[in-house]
């Protein structure tokens, strides 16, 4: 990165008079390429709720910074993650989500893989000279179930999710004791024509809540609303109330609250 794209060492040293990043950090492709390598490829990223891959053979696919990824529950009930690429000629192995068969078959040359990623059969390769079956398996990446959710990490040297998000699972469980028992009701995928940091900036403030989200602002007491930072995650917390514009609360719930987590 050149000098124009480096922040001063004392940038945001005093959060009371902090500024947003210079615009180049939102527009530069060079900056984004660096972010992909230094942030997204080295961080634990939440990709699913545990209920989506709770049973043997359940799988999901996700795309992260251009990488196609499979998360799958094996017949042995072990959760694993792989790059969604056949090691033979790079064809996509699975799409969408659902229940996999007992082997994954590449639709291009019909190589088949066990759900632990190992090669089961390479068609017509039995007598290929120097064919290395042991090194023809699907390429794994790190995966961990944490706080009721599934996280992946492309960095083979990464430690556990707790190291990145200390006490996050504990606070999440305090806010929703049944978080692990929840089921996915619906999943929506949207493409936003904006730099990812703009989306994060938007989420991390409620200054816009009143004008942009009147229903939310009516169901949470915005004048009694706290935002706390915890290293690599944040918690937005406030008192909740029934609203004709959004949700009706069960009257039996005493002192209802709202908790919004960001990692």
Explained architecture:
- With 263 residues, this protein is α+β, with helices and mostly antiparallel strands.
- It contains seven helices and 13 strands.
- The strands form three sheets. A seven-stranded antiparallel beta sheet has the order 1-10-9-4-3-2-5, with no helix packed on it. A three-stranded antiparallel beta sheet has the order 6-7-8, with no helix packed on it.
- The protein is globular, with a radius of gyration of 22 Å.
- The model has no long low-confidence stretch (mean pLDDT 92).
The mean pLDDT is 92
Q: Low-confidence parts, pLDDT < 50 over ≥5 residues?
A: none
What global shape is seen?
globular
> C-alpha Rg, in Å?
22 Å
Placed side by side, the strands forming the largest sheet appear as 1-10-9-4-3-2-5
Supply the number of helical segments.
7
DSSP strand tally: 13
Q: What structural class is derived from the secondary structure elements?
A: alpha+beta
Report the biggest beta sheet as strand number plus sense, adding barrel if it closes: 7 strands, antiparallel
Name the beta content range: 25-35%
Question: What is the N-to-C succession of helices and strands?
Answer: HHEEEEEEEEEEHHHHHEEE
Separation of the first and last Cα atoms: 26 Å
Summarize the amount of helix as a percent range.
10-25%
């Amino acid at each position: 990165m050149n000098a124009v794209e480096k922040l001063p060492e004392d940038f945001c040293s005093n959060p009371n008079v902090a500024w947003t990043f210079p615009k180049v950090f939102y527009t530069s492709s060079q900056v984004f390429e660096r972010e992909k390598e230094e942030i997204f490829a080295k961080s634990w990223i939440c990709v699913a709720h545990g209920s989506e891959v709770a049973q043997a053979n359940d799988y999901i696919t996700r795309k992260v910074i251009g990488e196609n990824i499979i998360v799958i529950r094996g017949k042995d009930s072990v959760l694993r993650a792989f790059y969604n690429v056949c090691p033979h000629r790079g064809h996509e192995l699975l799409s969408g989500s659902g229940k996999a068969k007992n082997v994954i078959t590449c639709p291009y040359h019909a190589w088949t893989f066990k759900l632990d990623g190992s090669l089961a059969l390479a068609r017509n390769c039995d007598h290929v000279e120097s064919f290395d079956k042991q090194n023809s398996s699907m390429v794994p990446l790190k995966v961990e179930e944490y706080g009721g959710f599934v996280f992946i990490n492309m960095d083979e040297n990464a430690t556990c999710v707790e190291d990145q998000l200390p006490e996050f699972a504990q606070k999440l469980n305090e806010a929703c004791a049944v978080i692990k028992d929840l089921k996915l009701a619906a999943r929506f995928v949207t493409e936003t024509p904006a730099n990812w940091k703009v989306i994060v900036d938007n989420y991390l403030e409620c200054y816009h809540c009143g004008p942009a989200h009147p229903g939310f602002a009516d169901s949470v007491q915005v004048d009694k609303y706290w935002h706390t930072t915890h290293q690599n995650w944040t918690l937005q917390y406030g008192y909740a109330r029934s609203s004709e514009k959004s949700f009706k609360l069960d009257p039996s719930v005493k002192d209802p609250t709202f908790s919004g987590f960001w990692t």
